[in-house]
Automatic annotation (TrEMBL):
Residues 9-24 have a biased composition (Low complexity). InterPro entries: ARM-like (IPR011989), ARM-type_fold (IPR016024), ARM_PUB (IPR058678), Armadillo (IPR000225). It holds the Pfam family ARM_PUB. It comes from the Eukaryota. It comes from Solanum stoloniferum. Keywords: Repeat, Ubl conjugation pathway. This is U-box domain-containing protein. Gene3D superfamilies: Leucine-rich Repeat Variant. Residues 181-444 form the U-box domain. Residues 1-37 are annotated as: Disordered. SMART domains: ARM. ARM repeats lie at residues 206-248, 329-371. The lineage of its organism: Eukaryota, Viridiplantae, Streptophyta, Embryophyta, Tracheophyta. The keyword Ribonucleoprotein does not apply.
Length: 451
């Protein structure tokens, strides 16, 4: 039996690779309630001497399993038919990956509802802002001069009645005045926010080619309105082709590198929207999107990290983008997010990790960064869905690697896997049983090869 002390010392010796790489990680905002687990606690294999059927509050189930019970369970599993490796299919992976089905909230321009509040001046005469001063306003006329307008009223107007307004905005995007262009981009942003017919009208009115130059505008508010307008327009399928054919991918990546937090998030969502067309995935990766997405994953807000995870997941369905993600250092922050609770990021991070196990360099990086220990921790005390993702990822790491199976055993993985095979969801039980069968095969091979 492995003691708690020995377990910790073992972990420190097996995860030394991760300490040799520089890694700059910005903690989540203080407003987010985050509980971080310490990687390596999964080596805890202290169990009671008696098997208790009533677990109560006595701790994780696996801590109540004696060695004999574990062996009995493994023997029980050995009587099952041989494992068919093809059963770990992409179909099951795609079912689990529905954690991304919410489109990471990028279909809703949530920042727009809060933006005006952010720019309302404080009435306190003693208050002073430490931010950069607002650019001096330039004259706007008519509809563009209005700082506020009712989106509810605009959404109730039929598209044909909006044509003059849209034409005014499109023409104003080519003005020499930054304020006029900013206001026009803002109006188009809100007009395209919720209505598909408005998105179609704006796309057909020629707005997309004249919005693109604003993505490189030095005024951050203008850039933010433009990138968000393009995001909203991209939700209309025919506009996706117009946007990519206009050369928007490189400009969106520029925003991803240089924009405000909101601009970066919406640029990531815009790239995600374009990546829903398969032929765009390679183009987006080739234009350099992966590295700034990894940077957003490391340093972004909670929403920014979700957007980065969702976009990386979609892009990494292509092998070449998987390689780019690993080379850009995506694995370390992904492993770190697996060990976070309370942010809603852990499950998404595990799905992206599962995707990266599809290439050898991805598997090697996950092992190097302490991924097995982190995943075992999730099996110990993660959510039901998290346990499904974790055991799936471990299975992918171990299915063709005897070395990785040995690492999993040394990380104390067998007891929590046995417990999961008895108490998990139907999918988790199946995956745990399959993985335990592989581990048992490795143990049998090792014992028969020993002189």
């Amino acid at each position: 039996m492995v003691s708690l002390e020995n377990s910790h010392s073992h972990v420190s010796s097996t995860t030394h690779y991760s300490q040799t790489r520089p890694y700059y990680y910005t903690p989540p905002p203080s407003s987010a309630k985050v509980h971080r687990r310490s990687i390596g606690r999964s080596m805890r294999t202290i169990r009671s001497n008696l098997y208790q059927t009533d677990y109560g509050n006595s701790g994780p189930v696996y801590e109540n399993l004696t060695d004999s019970v574990v062996d009995f369970r493994l023997t029980e599993l050995s009587k099952k038919p041989p494992v068919d490796k093809s059963s770990s299919s992409d179909v099951e992976f795609l079912e689990l990956s529905q954690t991304f089905s919410d489109f990471s909230a990028c279909s809703s321009d949530i920042s727009g509802e809060l933006e005006r509040l952010a720019y309302i001046p404080n009435s306190d005469p003693n208050w002073s802002s430490v931010s950069e001063p607002e650019p001096e306003p330039e004259p706007c006329v008519g509809f563009l001069q209005r700082e506020t307008f009712s989106t509810e009223i605009m959404e109730s107007i039929e598209p044909e009645d909006l044509q003059p307004t849209v034409k005014l905005c499109v023409d104003s995007l080519q003005s020499s005045s930054v304020a006029v262009k900013r206001s026009a981009a803002e109006k188009l942003r809100f007009l395209a926010k919720n209505r598909a017919d408005n998105r179609a009208l704006i796309g057909e009115s020629g707005a997309i080619p004249v919005l693109l130059p604003l993505l490189r505008c030095s005024d951050p508010r203008t850039q933010e309105h433009a990138v968000t307008a393009l995001l909203n327009l991209s939700l209309h399928e025919p506009n996706k082709t117009l946007i990519t054919n206009s050369g928007a991918i490189k400009s969106l990546i520029y925003v991803l590198k240089t924009g405000t937090e909101t601009s970066k998030q919406n640029a990531a969502c815009g790239l995600l929207s374009l990546a829903l067309i398969d032929e765009n995935k390679l183009s987006i990766g080739a234009c350099g999107a992966i590295a700034p997405l990894v940077a957003l994953l490391i340093n972004g807000t909670n929403r920014g990290k979700k957007d980065a995870l969702t976009t990386l997941y979609k892009l990494c369905t292509v092998r070449l983008n998987k390689e780019r993600a690993v080379s850009a250092g995506a694995v370390k922050p992904l492993v770190g997010l697996v060990c976070e609770e309370g942010t809603g990021l852990a499950e998404k991070a595990m799905v992206v990790l599962s995707s990266l196990t599809g290439i050898e360099m991805g598997q090697e990086s996950i092992i190097e960064e302490g991924g097995i220990a982190a995943l075992v921790e999730v099996i110990e005390d993660g959510s039901d869905k998290g346990k499904e993702f974790a055991v799936m990822t471990l299975l992918q790491l171990c299915v063709d690697s005897v070395r990785n199976r040995g690492l999993l055993v040394r990380e104390g993985g067998i007891p929590p896997l046995v417990a999961l095979s008895q108490t998990g969801t139907a999918k988790a039980k199946h995956k745990a049983e399959t993985l335990l069968t592989y581990l048992r095969e490795s143990r049998q091979e090792a014992s028969t090869s020993t002189p």
